Amino acid sequence: MWDYTEKVKDHFLNPRNVGEIADADGVGEVGSLACGDALKLMFKLDEQEKIKDAKFQTFGCASAIASSSALTEIIKGMTLDEAARVTNRDIADFLGGLPQEKMHCSVMGREALEAAIANYRGIVPEKKLELEGEIVCTCFGVTDVEIKRVIKENDLKSVDDITNYTKAGGACGTCKEDLAKILAATIGEVKESAPLEKPKKKKLTNIQKMQMIQETIERDIRPSLRADGGDIELIDIDGNRVIVAFRGVCSACPSSEVTLKENVEKKLKEFVSDEIIVEEEA
Q1: What is the pLDDT of residue 195?
Q2: pLDDT tens digits for 107-131?
Q3: Are residues 35 and 141 in contact, defined by beta-carbon separation less than 8 angstroms?
Q4: Three-point CA angle 73, 77, 79, nearest 5°
Q5: Does 139 participate in catalysis according to the annotation?
Q6: Is residue 170 part of a domain?
């Protein structure tokens, strides 16, 4: 039996936003019943062109349902440009992780979102298909372009990883030799293109740092906490020390320390400064 997190179980047993939007602005459909997984994602925009509603219909396992449910919660309130930056890793992280063998469900969610955005923007499906490369896994219709992308985005290291994230090679297995070649070539490309030194972030003034911390909390941290009935309050900023307090269900959550470091601090380090240290109000 798969080792699912409590959040995965919750979104599987109590999926959010199931159904259809009759006058949807964007619709994306990926997968197929023949392959065992299929997902249809729809969204509706408000006057500011932010996603005010998102719904899904899916055929698949518990991870597919949970991933689809999580995705609709993540993108609500986002602009299309913000939604376009959502990765399959964001979906898995939102759920507290997925079994490695089920990561392809989060990839399917990301693909459906991209398809829905392309649909809204009027990108012609035939033209998009021309850019997707050659099919490597005929059992599941996975192309070399998609395989390379998933390898790079998720730092995959083995053919088994590729199967877990794309399903390629998971049926007859005849494409595994091709997958190994693509893996070796892609890892080589990543090594060649990797920068020799991580670019240094521009030194910030105190006012700039405070503004960026507040913006990051509002844009990248608070929405996911509120989606679960929680919230966060910025209490104080002392140099690189950021003091926060969790509210709602987050205030009594046994995983609050993990959320503090793996969500709040990690985001602030990414978008503001590597020197940020986040502490919870005593």
Answers
A1: 57
A2: 999 999 999 999 998 876 544 444 4
A3: yes
A4: 115
A5: no
A6: yes
| 253 included as an active-site residue | no
Tokens 């995983």 found at? 255
What would the pLDDT profile of 192-226 be if each residue is shown by its tens digit?
Answer: 665 545 555 567 788 888 888 988 898 888 888 88
Catalytic one among 61, 105, 172, 253?
105
Which are the contacts of 19, defined by CB distance < 8 A and separation ≥ 6? 55, 57
CA neighbor of 66 nearest in space, from 140, 6, 20? 6
| pLDDT over 70, % of the chain | 90
Question: Radius of gyration over alpha carbons of the chain, in Å?
Answer: 20
238-272 pLDDT, tens digit per residue, is 889 999 999 888 888 877 888 888 889 988 888 88
Q: What is the CATH number of the domain that holds 217?
A: 3.30.300.130
The residue from 193, 226, 243 where one domain ends is: 193
CA distance 265 to 242: 9
Between 3 and 146, the more confident residue is: 146
Give me the torsion for CA of 232, 237, 243, 247, rounded to 10°. -20
The amino acid occupying position 28 is G
Write down the catalytic residue from 35, 137, 175, 250. Answer: 35
User: Taking the chain, what is the end-to-end CA distance rounded to the nearest angstrom?
Assistant: 40
For residue 1, is it within any domain? Answer: no
